[in-house]
Design goal:
alpha+beta, Rossmann fold, 8-stranded mixed β-sheet, 7-stranded mixed β-sheet, 37 strands, 26% helix
């Protein structure tokens, strides 16, 4: 029992996280002690549940239970059927849940969808019975679902947690049951530069959140979800089939994300299916691109005549790019995410992208770079001229970054917006991130409040980025979004960005309605057009379809005008999706504007609109209830379906494992400041080759080989502790950071670190303080400072006894 008491003292100090250690060590105790330990551990868990805990809403790694009676992976398959007719896609997503355990369960699954998706239907099938879901107010739907669950009825609930993040709950899945849920949505596919792109997001990336779980509203708790480790395949299969029908011959088609089979039934019809090797390809977005013959998107008008309301969609192609006679000087603020989720593949792509963006600046331009994770760091206190020396300095700073820590987006945005402006210049903010945050609407609101100060462009980096944030930031700031999923896409994205910002294609856009009675038009105003993509306008119309619609504006210094004859277009039943697309467009406008404030009027407007048009929204949900009572007693185990990490995302995206701090490089004009002298001396910049970038997205085996090479010969020689922290606990934490130490020395190009001895104090909350170097052999000042900065970020278990612990560690490179 002495060993049990010792372990329980750690439970009291550390709390629930140590229960994982208990589960791993139970085998070492007698059956009597195991029973006592399990009972007391359960008491600790219950006590914390009652008292509240300090867990944040960030995701966590799955810890597999030894209870084989509970199926921990109830989602077995996801299949997607897509029909694209012209510019409208209709998508049906089927999820198959099966309980292979011995206890009734409730399955909870968080999954993404397109940011443009108008979700208009859901149904649930159990055996031979199919139940069509009803749209209800969110609170009502949840209450009906919970009641059905308690009564033992099978039920499903579909909720929107973000405009591109949904949650499915399926209650009372009995042992051996197979339950199918089907949801349907429609979306618009608009071309850019003549290229059409259909994207089906497959997995929600881990969202960083510092909000405490105990105080969070139920609508925000979705982000605290179990996650598999990097490199682990999804536990469910993935399949997708797409049928394309166009009025113009398809010139070319390709899928950049998955292996596919493409079959052409005619020049205007094609079918796309996933290859058999992609059975577990649900860890990255499915991206299909195609181009129509002639490489030209024609302007057009679609009409739908309904029983109560009529809807239209206007698409007008802007003019081709032109050479503006006068291009004003420009200032660029690059805001780059270097948090834990960016470690590895995403950060290496970001470095490549930034190299190309910075290298394309004109000498007359000014620029600055702001790096952010849990904090933020500026290249300079004010923007610098884009001289070769300053650009090289910025590139050096980026090369040092390894990725680590949280993702505090809002403070970084606020800091960037508050920077002094360069006189007589047009300011453009550029965000580079994977978007794994939960403060999207707050960020949109912040950008809108500063619309007169800057345009805003956003680059999403990774295989499954948060497109709601990436696209929403650009929409709020009047700019353009871009998503880069592979290293070879960085160069093309940088070139496209430079072309976009050279000068807008169409400014001062206005719509004139000549005899066509349009109303409730979305958007309320058309922003400046930066790319060769059509101007899209949704709306309703009364009376007969006649008259004309004229689009005017300025193309450079020349007037632009385009007229569409309404009488030449016939309403068609095939355009019935326009009803949902208009409503989704109006919902997006209302949600973006009202959600940051959550005022009563905004909530009422969104709810009323969604209920009227049978759409999923932040305040409406779909619920399907089986009439048959199947699980008597209401004893159901809730199981959150674990999500795979998106391809290329490392374990550093979940929690603070191996967090690496931002490393600063001295900046021209600041070298005399004490702060600059304390930073790490940067290495000479060397361009990343495409091969190197591709290696960063290599397989888990190659990544492990790379880590082994970096840490080869780096050993912990001695550890001394006092004050309630064991040597084993210290060793475990330090070993997690050996790779970061190796990279630190590698980045500063100091050669092997022969030996270094560090000493520090571990505070009661696990933080490091008073860190100092006792001795160092054959280590440059740069590498010493780098290691010290790393060690300051470490976190240890809470010391027992006196509340503080003293630690001395010696590292040696053999």
């Amino acid at each position: 029992m002495g060993r049990v008491r010792a372990l329980l003292s750690k439970v009291a100090a550390v709390g629930l996280p140590v229960l994982v250690m208990i589960g791993q060590t139970l085998a070492g105790y007698s059956s009597e002690n195991r029973g006592v330990l399990a009972f007391l551990a359960a008491r600790v868990a219950c006590a914390q549940a009652v008292e509240g805990n300090d867990n944040t809403l960030s995701p966590y790694f799955l810890v597999k239970s030894d209870d084989s009676s509970v199926d921990q992976f109830p989602l077995k398959a996801t299949s997607v059927a897509v029909r694209v007719a012209g510019v409208i896609a209709d998508v049906k997503v089927t999820q198959v849940y099966k309980n292979t355990g011995q206890k009734p369960i409730e399955a909870v699954y968080v999954f993404p969808a397109s940011t443009r998706a108008a979700v208009y239907g859901m149904r649930m099938t159990i055996g031979e019975r199919t139940i069509v879901a009803e749209i209800r107010k969110r609170e009502e739907a949840r209450a009906v679902y919970e009641q059905a669950k308690q009564e033992g009825r099978s039920a499903s609930l579909l909720e929107q947690q973000r405009p591109n993040v949904f949650q499915m709950n399926v209650a009372n899945i009995l042992p051996g049951d197979e339950v199918k849920t089907e949801l349907q949505y429609t979306e618009m596919i608009a071309p850019s530069e003549g290229l059409y792109e259909f994207v089906y997001p497959t997995v929600v990336g881990p969202r960083y959140s510092s909000q405490l779980e105990a105080s969070a509203p139920p609508s925000e708790k979705w982000s605290r979800n179990p996650t598999l480790h990097q490199g682990e395949k999804p536990s469910y299969t993935f399949d997708l089939g797409l049928a394309l029908t166009t009025g113009v011959p398809v010139q070319e088609m390709a899928c950049s994300s998955h292996q596919v089979d493409i079959r052409y039934d005619s020049p205007t019809q094609a079918k796309v299916t996933l290859a058999a090797t992609e059975q577990f390809g649900g860890n990255r977005d499915f991206i299909l691109k195609y181009r129509l013959a002639g490489n030209q998107f024609e302007s057009g008008l679609l009409l739908y005549e309904g029983k109560e309301e009529n809807f239209f969609l206007l698409m007008v192609q802007p003019p081709r790019r032109y050479d503006a006679h006068q291009i004003p000087s420009r200032e660029y603020l690059f805001i780059v995410d270097v948090s834990g989720s960016m470690h590895g593949f995403p950060l290496e792509i970001s470095k490549k992208l930034m190299r190309d963006l910075l290298g394309g600046l004109r000498p007359t331009d000014a620029f600055n770079v702001l790096l952010f994770s849990g904090g933020s760091q500026l290249l300079a206190e004010k923007s610098l001229p884009a001289t070769p020396e300053n650009v090289r300095q910025a590139q050096n700073l980026l090369v040092l970054q390894q990725g680590g820590g949280g993702t505090d987006l809002l403070p970084a945005l606020k800091r960037a917006l508050q920077l002094p402006r360069t006189e007589k210049s047009a300011r453009t903010l550029v965000m580079v991130t994977d978007g794994y945050v939960t403060v999207e609407t707050e960020a949109f609101d912040l950008i809108r409040k500063n619309l007169g100060n800057a345009n805003f462009f956003s680059f999403g980096i990774g295989s499954s980025v948060n497109r709601f944030l990436i696209e929403g930031l650009a929409r709020a700031g009047g700019g353009e979004p871009a998503v880069i999923t592979k290293p070879d896409g960085a160069l093309a994205a940088a070139e496209k960005f430079r072309t976009h910002i050279k000068s807008p294609l169409l400014t001062g856009v206005r719509l004139e309605w000549g005899g066509f009675e349009a109303y409730e038009v979305e958007p309320l105003a058309v922003p400046d057009v930066f790319a060769e993509r059509p101007v899209l306008v949704y709306g309703k119309w009364r009376g007969q379809p006649h008259g004309e619609i004229r689009v005017t504006g300025l193309a450079g210094t020349e007037p632009y005008s385009k007229t569409v004859k309404v009488s030449e277009v016939k309403p068609a039943e095939a355009n019935s999706a326009l009803r949902y697309l208009w409503a989704r467009s109006r919902l997006a406008q209302l949600t973006d504007y009202h959600l940051p404030h959550r005022d009563d009027r905004g909530v009422a407007d969104i709810t009323s609109l969604a209920l009227r048009y049978n759409l999923l929204s932040a305040y409406t949900s779909f619920v399907a209830i089986d009439s048959e009572v199947r699980c008597k007693g209401g004893d159901v185990t809730a199981v959150r379906q674990p999500l795979p990490l998106p391809e290329g995302v490392s374990d550093l995206a979940v929690g603070a494992l191996g967090a690496v701090p931002m490393m600063a490089a001295p900046v021209a004009g600041r070298s005399g400041s004490p702060k600059a002298q304390e930073t790490v001396a940067p290495p000479r910049y060397e361009a990343l080759s495409p091969t190197a970038a591709n290696n960063s997205a290599a397989s888990p085996e190659k990544e492990r080989a790379s880590r082994d090479k970096i840490t080869q010969g780096l050993q912990i020689i001695r550890i001394k502790t006092s004050g309630g922290l064991s040597e084993a606990e210290v060793k475990k934490i330090v070993e997690q950071h050996l790779e970061a130490i190796g990279r630190c020395c590698q980045a500063t190009r100091t050669g092997p670190l022969t030996e270094i001895t560090l000493a520090w104090t571990v505070e009661p909350d696990g933080r490091v303080s008073g860190l100092r170097i006792i001795s160092a052999r054959k280590a440059s000042g740069a590498s010493e400072r780098c290691v010290v900065e790393l060690a300051k970020q470490w976190r240890f278990p809470h010391p027992t006894g006196s509340g503080k612990a003293s630690v001395t560690v010696t590292l040696r490179q053999s």
